Amino acid sequence: MLIGLSAAVFVLFNGRIAGISGILGGLLEWPKGDIAWRVAFLAGLIGAPLVYGAVLTLPEVRIDADFPTLIIAGLLVGVGTRYGSGCTSGHGVCGLSRMSPRSLVATVAFMLAGFATVFVVRHLIA
User: Fold this and answer.
1) 117, 126 Cβ separation under 8 angstroms
2) Where are the transmembrane segments (predicted)?
């Protein structure tokens, strides 16, 4: 609920979509007068777990993949984000709430790709 609420508040007060890839990608372009809010948003994404971890115990993170696999997966996600014109946060949270047909197609594609990947990795390769 908090993610949806924050995305709604973000679009109401800033007129912008809270898609992480778009916010980060905008920083790489260095648009004039459009940097401070992007840096603040990303600092909040990084800082919030750090503050939480300082107050409470963070859950254990367990990744069942080696480093090369994680690099390849990250690159594939980056390529998919560019081809899909946005990431899961932009399409899945913000786009679907605006009833965007493009976001519906993108979210279905993300989900199907995830299901297929898990099936292949867990049942066909391993």
Assistant:
1) no
2) 35-55, 67-84, 104-125
In the predicted structure, residue 18 carries a pLDDT above the cut 90: no
Of all helices (H) and strands (E), which one includes residue 13?
Answer: helix 2-14
Residues 6+ apart with CB under 8 A from 45: 20
Scan for tokens 């976001």, then name that residue.
103
User: What is the pTM for the complete model shown?
Assistant: 0.70
Report the Cα–Cα distance between both ends of the chain, in Å, rounded: 36
Torsion of CA 2, 88, 112, 62, to 10 degrees: -70
**Boundaries of domain holding 96:** 1-125
Report pLDDT for 126.
Answer: 67
